[in-house]
Structures are given as C-alpha cells and as structure tokens.
Transmembrane BAX inhibitor motif-containing protein 4
Amino acid sequence: MSKNLRPGDGRDNDGPDWNLNPRVIFVLEDHPKLFPWQELICQFQGLITALNGRGFPNTPVPPFQLSPNPSIKMATKATSKDSFGKESIVDDFMYGSNVATAHVYIRMGFLRKVYGILSVQLLLTTITGFLFMSSETVTNYVQQNHWMLLVAMVGSIGLVIALMIYKNQTPTNYILLGLFTMFEAYCVGTVVTFYKVHSVLEAFLMTLVVAVSLTMYTLQSKKDFSSWGAGLFACLCVLLVASFLQIFFPTVLMDRMIAAGGALLFSLFIVFDTSMMMHKLSPEEYIVASVNLYLDILNLFLHLLRLMGERK
C-alpha cells in the first residue's frame, strides 16, 4: 500500500517501493489557460497510482544483502555476492537496520548522497523555470503546445513507477532519475510562465525558508515522526477528492482552501519524509529519499504559488 500505511522499514525485496506515487500528481499544477481536462487527468492518474501501491509487503533486508563499502574496516563480518558476482565482506553492525542506527560514516555518506541529488534536482528545476519565464518565445511555445505538457505528465508518472522498481540498479536508477527530473522541471516551468515574476520569486523564497527550517528541525530532533503516515495519507486523500470536485464545482474559496491545505500538508510531508529517511530507510535507498523530498518541496512551492501568486 502507499508509504504512509505500511509497517516496517520502507524496504522491499520482492517488489517495487511505491512510497511516493500518490503525491506525484500534485506537481502537475492546474491553470485555467491550460487544457480543461488537465487536472482531471492528474487526479485520475493519482488515484490509479495510489491503488497500484497496494499489496506489496515490506520485507526487511538483512544487513549482509546490502552493498559493501570496501574502505571500511569491519568488526562483525559476513560474506555475500556483490552486483558483479564477486565475493565481498559487509559489516552488519556498521550498516545497522536503518540510517539512524548505522555507523556515523555510513549515515553521513547517505545524507551527502540524498541532499546532493536533491540539490541537483532543484537546481535543474529552477534553471528550467527561469529559462521558461525569461524568454517570451519559450513562454509562448510551452503555453501553446499542450501536448508536450501531457507527455511530461504521463511520462513523470511512468518514470516514478520505473524508478521505484529499479531504485537499486545502477546506472539505470540514475538515468530514470534524470529523465524524471527533466519531466517534472518541464511541468513546473510551464506553470510558472502563467505567473508574474515577483510572485514566483516570493513563493520560491518562502519554499526555501520553510524547507530548510523544517529539515534542520527534523534532523536535530530526537523525535520519530514516521508515525504520522496514516494521518498524512488520509489528508492527502481528502485533498485529492477536494481537487477533483473543484474541477466540476469551481469556487474561489475552495481554490484558496485547497492551496492553503496543500501547502500545510506538504510542509508536514517534509518533516515526515525526513524522519522516514532516517528511521525507516536503509543506507542504500538514497534515491527513494531524494525523490520523496523533491516531490514534497515542488508541491509546497506550487501550492504556495497557487495561494499567493498573481497571474498574468
């Protein structure tokens, strides 16, 4: 089932990890100048993606199945086969059952990977949005060619599913991650072209402050916020339904409520996913962690832009 309803440590040997799928649809922000069925398609795909996440058990991964780091000297050892078929030795104590219990060397390496990947994703998205807004030719092109936005929407959903299936297969996971980020950047870049520059900048700065503040708080806190999952998923379903109804019964008040509720919800998701990253994921699931946080930050930005932004 979706990430917020499953017990365990967030890892799965027998099937793909469907942790982030329901939230991907909110990145595909609606706008009245875009084709009228865009939001309906987004909501439908989001519901299908959420349903597809059912039925995958969360089987813990034994420490000796994790990829080794040959540079580490080990106290407790076990032998295994690495991805190239060669015999290797892994320290189960230093890896631990999750990131929080792993050795500090492993933990810091994991965090560097996650936030390094996340920084590249956000930088690419920011540059794409800037280029789309700064060139009138590009702005007109992306606003008039709705089929490209549709391709990016469908492609991002397909890629996020493929990414969860091949999350531990290098370099396939990095190729999928790059394509997924490009599609998401195109969607966000298209949305910001409909807003004035000062509105986009305000939403960007507010998102930056909120994301950094919540991340620092969660990493410094000794609390485990991963128990919020069921409540956040329930709120996400309510937001999905409300957004779906907004298509057929549009009101300004409902639009503002959805935007404000979405901004609050994805702020909480940043706390939740940061905590999940530390307490429920293994040191090798940095791709899952970075994509979850990337989607949280994009969705927070888009809902803040929807709430406060001034359209052209």
